[in-house]
Specification:
Blueprint lengths: L4 H19 L6 H8 L7 E5 L7 H7 L3 E6 L2 H10 L4 E4 L12 E6 L11 H11 E12 L6 E8 L2 E7 L2 H10 L2 E9 L6 E8 L2
Parallel strand pairs: 1-2, 1-4, 2-3, 4-5
Antiparallel strand pairs: 5-9, 6-7, 8-9
This protein binds S-adenosylmethionine (SAM).
């Protein structure tokens, strides 16, 4: 694979946007979203990192009355998201290069996206997130649930395109999140369709 890892992910998701959207319903996250969204103040602004087609995450949160800003670097995922959830705002942006003012958001979510970011960049992403969240706000995300020190690899046929994944196991992910300044409120390895994921609810304290 000679293409940069992030280009494999970006181009891949842009190509499969429609197919991804079609099969996304299999992974119903509504139970978790209902539980977690109670942590976000009513009517507040939430950042969705790797927002995909906007369904089900941004759509669920918009319907609960939150202002959602989704970021994703795959052009066609963004296009579909704008169509699927017109009440949210979607920006084409690379998570690893995101630039928002400090204390911009009341909460953040990221579902099935961190696992596509080269793992040596994860610490930096958590630090950026800490900076742009307001004090006392929560983030809820998943990383890999597999108990590995570090793994990355390619798949040749993910819905018909090549794909790249990269991750640490739950212990190291927890350490990175705490080192970024968060307090972990709740975490658990769950298999909600697909692979085992490590779900983390963390708080930026005062
Ligand atoms: C498995 S999909 C998940 C989409 C959505 N969160 C969901 O739950 O359906 C991963 C998404 O993350 C996006 N993504 C991966 N790496 C990214 C990066 N570095 N910057 C922005 N988006 C990224 C992909 O383009 C893709 O839309």
């Amino acid at each position: 694979m000679s293409k940069p890892k992030s280009e494999i992910v970006r181009k891949g998701y842009s190509k499969i946007a429609k197919a991804y959207h079609k099969q996304r319903d299999k992974y119903n996250n509504n139970l978790l979203l209902t539980k977690i969204s109670k942590r976000f103040p009513k009517g507040s602004t939430i950042l969705d990192l790797g927002s995909g087609t906007g369904v089900p995450i941004a759509k669920f949160l918009v319907n609960k009355g939150y202002d959602i800003i989704g970021i994703d670097f795959a052009e066609n995922m963004i296009k579909l998201a704008r169509k699927n959830v017109p009440r949210a705002k979607f920006i084409k942006m690379d998570i690893t290069k995101m630039k928002f003012k400090p204390n911009s958001f009341d909460g953040a979510v990221s579902f099935y996206a961190i696992i596509h970011i080269p793992r040596e960049k994860h610490a930096c992403v958590y630090k950026k997130l800490h900076r742009i969240l307001r004090p006392n706000s929560h983030m809820f995300l998943n990383a890999s649930g597999y108990d590995v020190n570090g793994w990355e690899g390619y798949g040749k046929d993910y819905l018909g395109v090549p794909m790249f994944w990269s991750y640490y196991g739950p212990k190291k992910t927890s350490r990175l999140i705490v080192n970024a300044g968060f307090e972990i409120i709740w975490s658990k390895v769950l298999k909600l369709g697909g692979d085992k994921q490590f779900w983390v609810l963390a708080k930026k304290n005062d």
